[in-house]
Amino acid sequence: xxxxxxxxxxxxxxxxxxxxxxxxxxxxxxxxxxxxxxxxxxxxxxxxxxxxxxxxxxxxxxxxxxxxxxxxxxxxxxxxxxxxxxxxxxxxxxxxxxxxxxxxxxxxxxxxxxxxxxxxxxxxxxxxxxxxxxxxxxxxxxxxxxxxxxxxxxxxxxxxxxxxxxxxxxxxxxxxxxxxxxxxxxxxxxxxxxxxxxxxxxxxxxxxxxxxxxxxxxxxxxxxxxxxxxxxxxxxxxxxxxxx
Length: 244
What we know:
By secondary structure, the protein is α/β, with parallel strands linked by helices. The chain has one domain: Glycerol-3-phosphate (1)-acyltransferase. The protein contains seven helices and seven strands; from the N terminus they run H-H-E-E-H-E-H-E-H-E-H-E-E-H. Strands 1-7-6-2-5-3-4 form a seven-stranded mixed β-sheet, with helices on both faces. The two termini are 29 Å apart.
């Protein structure tokens, strides 16, 4: 009986969470989409991420999901390539509030989502067509270099998609290649968001998410292969430690 009550309670709280997010998104976009094009990119990110701040707070209030960040002092002053494991939508909301100004590498289909996609488009992301990997790689290097030249960091999830806990996906080399090409540092990030916000699941589970930010991995004197191996090893080992 207790298990049934717990499950019903989690479903009900998750429904309240998602309903609140959708309502807040509609209100936020209606209130900001007309003025945001008049702002510079850093101002745009600040305005749009007020919704992200709400989502993180609402997640805590309704579903008991809170978080802590370790190593925030490792974020450099200038632009960097942020590489992180990807387990849920939760970390995408958090990272937009931690790194600014920021361009996110994402699949182009996300820009077609009403309201959310329209807002993301105004943040000047790097939208890739995953069906054309060679062209996507060239686009990542070209547009990524343009972004960092404009003093903006680039967020990349090298797994390419949300990965369920326990699944193993080969990390792509795009982030390391961009860091090597632009000669800026990689900031590796690991987290265990999937414990509370599982991949492709409607139900959220109360608990604490830990986000660990590693020391910058500098590109000078390192090959693309070395940057890839060092960053991938750091993310995987810290991710697995957080899941233990």
